[in-house]
Amino acid sequence: MSKTGAVDRPSEDRPPRTTLIPPPRASAAANPAATLALDSQLDPFFIPDFCATRMVFAVVLIAELVALTLALARPNAPFLTELAGISMFLQWLGLTNAALLCYSRRWLARLTVPQSSAAAFTLILLNTVVISELALWLGTAFGTAGLTDRPAHWPFLLRNAGIALIVAALLLRYFFVTHQWHKHVRAEALSRIQALQARIRPHFLFNSMNTIAALTRSDPKRAEEAVEDLADVFRATLRDSHSPIRLKEELELTRIYQRIEALRLGSRLEVRWDVGSLPMRAFVPGLTVQPLLENAIYHGIEPLERGGTVTISGRVVDGEVELIVTNPVAEAGATGEPRVGNRLALDNIRQRLDLAYGGRGSMAVEQSPGRYQVTVRFPYSE
Amino acid sequence: MNAGPLRVLIVDDELPARERLQRLVEELPGCDVAGVCSNGADALSQFGKLKPSVVLLDIRMPGMTGIEVARHLGALENPPAIVFTTAYDEYALEAFESQAVGYLLKPVRSERLAQALKQASRLRVPQLLGLGTAAAPLAARQHVAVRVRDELKLIPVKDIRYFRADQKYVTVRHSRGEDLIDESLKQLEDEFARDFVRAHRSLLVAIAHVEVLERADGEDGYALRLRGEAEPLAVSRRQLAELRKRLATY
User: Fold this and answer.
1) Does residue B1 belong to any structural domain of this protein?
2) Do B61 and A336 touch (CB under 8 A)?
3) Does A263 reach chain B within 8 Å, measured CB to CB?
4) In the listed set B134, B152, B176, which residue is the last one of a domain according to the structure?
5) B26 — contact with chain A (CB < 8 Å)?
6) What is the count of structural domains for chain B?
7) A198-379, what's its fold?
8) pLDDT (tens place) for every residue of chain A, 382 residues total
9) pLDDT in tens, A18-28
10) SS3 content of chain A, % helix, strand, coil (to 5)
11) Does B74 lie in the same domain as B192?
12) Which of B14, B232, B41 is nearest to A262 (CA)?
């Protein structure tokens, strides 16, 4: 019992990669944003949901493995007969225990970790005794019923209780550690997203401030609008990072960002939009499109004396949103100082897609002389 | 500083930034806006006509960066004082701090501007020449400036075929002729190491313009033929191996 409560550094107790039991997954919620890996809520209770098909299958598998082990450990008995008998018994035991945990889960979840562990423990133990008793009774009623020698009553019960005790302890501990580990991984991913998101280019901030300072006197109305726009962009970067937003809002934010940059760059910046066919109500992680435009401007348009046109086009391919941002680039050697950090910015976006979609989002970069193109793809739900 | 207003040239690629600086300078007593330019090349070509005593120079500009503009201005006989302006430039600022170069952060405060302009006469340019190596992002120049009396003529580096060192000057041979510059061949070699290679002690050749390396006529040496050049250029024995290697890997 003390074992289950003693874990406070889950990272050191990381379970092996090849887990026998699939990690507990929140049942596909009717959540509109279920595509976002991070958004699927982590179950706060450490004992997994034994009503789920995957868990039932795992229980059957484990029971069979234990049966195999026990049968192998008895060299004197005929193997297959032994295996059949033990399997029969253990499958009963396993499935009834799973059913018990399944139905008591809601009640157990309300207790503290030691309390719920103790309760689960007691349930499993009691059930084992009952099933053992039942097996003995069946054995008496219908002959040997598979067990080669009819075992003595009390030693049989005690032995079974002992085995149940050990297996239950190991499993509960395993569930607890796995759960801690998942919690840890999730927290880490969230904090990484936050760290990535908070990074707005200082270059953009200070240049915008300078533009506003200039407009304050020459064109107060525009200055006012610029302050409002800037506030919107900053609010977006400070937003709860893992709650997805509608694609429409993200595109709106990108347009606001474009407006601020246009004040500064004037006719040098032109943006061609072709996103009419996108599902505007789809949910996307925040700051998916805006950083792509920011990148295109910073690395593409700004170093060009005459500026150029950024194209943002989007469509749906195989049920995924595909966004393509293309910008002209100054030919190598014709630019001023080389702008470092392009890869960094793109890595940032790539990582955020990875974290948000658990590897199902992708980003590709295509480079040809004078042209730079970034393609982002991710699944969506409405 | 002598009598008469301080003449200030403003160079910035962004219109709002130019407008604001212009207004701030105009509001300061004893300061005049000599001119406003939207890029470095423009500033250099107008410099002789405008004759400013201070240049407010944006660092991050397309085409030619402020740093490069400053280096060309620094080569003048009577270089102006230079005050850089930047919204954000972590690398450059470090270098400026270490070399006591004047700079202003945008949005620029009026008091800071006044202070910088007052000190401007003390901020001389020569230190700037070291900047190219002091800060990583300040790469090789895109142009070489030739001084013609008080004017600056810019030669794009990609048009340059070779540099030849004479007794006192270096001759720049480019697609539109020849000019003399006041720089050392060694420094040029270091700065443009990526695209130029020594053919002999006093000759630095643009690899991109080399047509062929061949045996010199009637002699037992080698010579380089450059595109657009009638005369082959002699190659010294000592440089031959290095030259071959650079031509092969370019």
Assistant:
1) no
2) yes
3) yes
4) B134
5) no
6) 2
7) Heat Shock Protein 90 (3.30.565)
8) 444 444 344 443 443 333 333 333 333 333 333 334 444 556 778 888 888 888 889 889 988 998 898 888 887 778 888 888 888 888 988 899 899 988 888 888 888 888 888 898 889 889 988 988 888 887 776 655 445 456 677 888 888 888 888 888 888 899 889 888 888 888 777 767 666 665 677 889 999 999 999 999 999 999 999 999 999 998 888 776 667 889 999 999 999 999 999 999 999 999 999 999 999 998 887 788 888 999 899 889 998 989 999 999 999 998 899 999 999 998 754 444 445 556 667 777 787 777 777 778 889 999 888 899 999 998 887 7
9) 333 333 333 33
10) 55, 10, 30
11) no
12) B14
Nearest to A308 by CA among A271, A343, A263: A271
CATH number of the domain where residue B95 is located: 3.40.50.2300
Contact yes or no for A338 and B139 at CB 8 A: yes
- B65 contacts on A by Cβ (under 8 Å): 336-337
Burial class (CB in 10 A: 0-12, 13-18, 19+), A80: exposed
CB B106 to CB A210 under 8 A? yes
Residues B85 and B148 in one domain: no
Look-up: residue for tokens 């990609």?
Answer: B158
Find all residues with CB under 8 Å of A16, minimum gap 6, and list them: none
Which among A266, A335, A338 has CB closest to B15?
A: A266
User: What is the nearest CA distance from B138 to chain A, expressed in angstroms?
Assistant: 6
Token pair belonging to A101: 């945990």
Same domain, B20 and B114: yes
A133: region left, alpha or beta (phi > 0 left; psi from -120 to 50 alpha): alpha
- Nearest by CB to B88, from A203, A330, A333: name it: A203
Same domain, B82 and B165: no
- The answer, as to whether pTM is greater than 0.90, is no
B17, B63, B138: residue with CB nearest A210: B17
Which residues of A fall within a CB distance of 8 Å from B88? Answer: 202-203, 205-207
Instruction: Please identify, among B74, B108, B134, the residue that sits at the C-terminal boundary of a domain.
Output: B134
A218 near B CB under 8 A = yes
Question: If you count residue pairs, one on A and one on B, with CB atoms under 8 Å apart, how many are there?
Answer: 80
Enter the ipTM.
0.72
Strand partners, B105: B86
Which residues of chain A are within 8 Å of residue B56 when distances are taken between CB atoms? none
Q: How many other C-beta atoms lie within 10 A of the C-beta of residue B56?
A: 31
Which amino acid is present at B174?
H
pLDDT tens track for B18-31: 999 999 999 999 89
Residue ranges per structural domain of chain A: 2-194, 198-379
Classify residue B228: in a domain, yes or no.
yes
Do B44 and B92 contact (CB within 8 A), yes or no?
A: no
Of B14, B64, B108, the CB nearest to A336: B64
Alpha carbon of A227: minimum distance to chain B alpha carbons (Å): 15
| Structural domain boundaries enclosing B210 | 143-249
| CA A8-A11-A13 angle, 5° bins | 75
Residue B244's domain is classified under what CATH number?
Answer: 2.40.50.1020
